[in-house]
Amino acid sequence: MYFKPLLTFFLAILFLSGCSVSNTPLSLISHKTTISTEEINDAFARVFPVQKKSSFGAIAFKRALLKPSSESDRVALSVALGLTSFEIPEGIEGVLTLSAGLRYDPHTKKIYLTEVTPIGVRFNDASLAQYVSKGAKSALNVIAVQVLSDIEIYQVKESFSARFIKNITVSKGKIVLEYGL
Question: What's the half-sphere exposure (Cβ side, CA atoms, 13 Å) at 164?
Answer without folding.
Answer: 18
